[in-house]
Amino acid sequence: MADNHITISLCMIVRNEENTVARCLDSVQDIVDEIVIVDTGSTDHTKEIIRRYTDKIFDFTWIDDFAAARNDAFSHATMEYILWLDADDVLLEPDRLKFLALKKNLDPMIDAVNMPYLLAFDQFGNVTFSLRRNRLVKRSRNFQWIGSVHEYLEVSGHVFNSDVEVAHKEEAHNSDRNLNIYEKRLALGKFFTPRDLYYFANELFDHRQYERAVEFYKKFLDTGKGWVEDQISTCGKLADCFQNLGDHENEQAYLFRSFEFDTPRAEFCCRLGFYNLQGGKLKQATFWYKLATQIEKPLDSWGHMFHACWTWLPHLQLCVCYDRLGQYALAYEHNEIARTFRPEDPQIIHNKNYLEGVLGLGRVEKGEINKEIGDE
């Protein structure tokens, strides 16, 4: 185990994680000084695997409360700082090295360290979706987890924004578990915080219960008390709901409503671009996609970030727009920018070959480029 400037307890809650837990622990066992595992009812070989790494394994009777289980795990820690991970998380090698450097050099006055959480990847291994989570906290501060589902760690004091990334490599998911917990609470008349309303609506959305999702997303927005990033996300989710319900007027209305909470985000500009492109409004589509390319990408955003909208996607769609407008040089220019982000993308390579032929010959078969361009 490591012996550097600060000491770290890894605290995890697990249940039937035999397929992923070894990968997770392998990636951090030389970084942390103690491994604490709370098992909430495994019936597979999870415990046997964990015993290869630690003897600090504790049982916790599951009570439909993730925060309670995580707080129990934290209560068994003995080191200066606590790191939490899920069994399907992993630190890739560059981030393992960064973490070791962080451990050696972290100012002991720091109370909490947040890190980017990489949640989805494309076929080329590029990050497509991420957010930030408070990941490493000082044990003496006794920070608590809050929320029975989609729990969060409430911190205060001196917080450090780290560039150490944690990758989420999910293999299996109990898709009904969280929804069932919320439904039980609703049936019992339990109070739902604004955060509860938001995450319950997300579960309803994931289960394609769009009309109920709309109901609870609207209840969340009506409280006026939610986190701004969740309010912005809700506008996008409501637009998705109305799109699935065939209500395109409300779909567009909620895309615009996202601008009430902050300056335009690239994700919403791309969606408005696509909305107009689908409607054949090429000039409007071009406007929104161009705006997406001009917005500065936030470095330490805590909200959900779809990286494609901040990098290659608006340029690829501008290629489509300019091709349809007959402005082939601009189409080629934006395709080349997209290619800097995804040099092996067959759609982009197709566009490159097509447009080089067009620009070289000075003629074009209309619409050819669009055969390979997919929806966002």
From TrEMBL:
Transmembrane segments: none
Glycosyltransferase 2-like domain mapped to chain residues: 9-95
Keywords linked to the UniProt accession: Transferase
GO molecular-function term, one example from the UniProt record: transferase activity
Entry keyword Transferase: yes
Residues making up the signal peptide according to the UniProt record: none
Keyword Protease on entry: no
Stored InterPro entries: Glyco_trans_2-like (IPR001173), Nucleotide-diphossugar_trans (IPR029044), TPR-like_helical_dom_sf (IPR011990)
Protein name in UniProt: Glycosyl transferase, group 2 family protein
Source organism (scientific name): Desulfosporosinus metallidurans
Organismal lineage: Bacteria, Bacillati, Bacillota, Clostridia, Eubacteriales
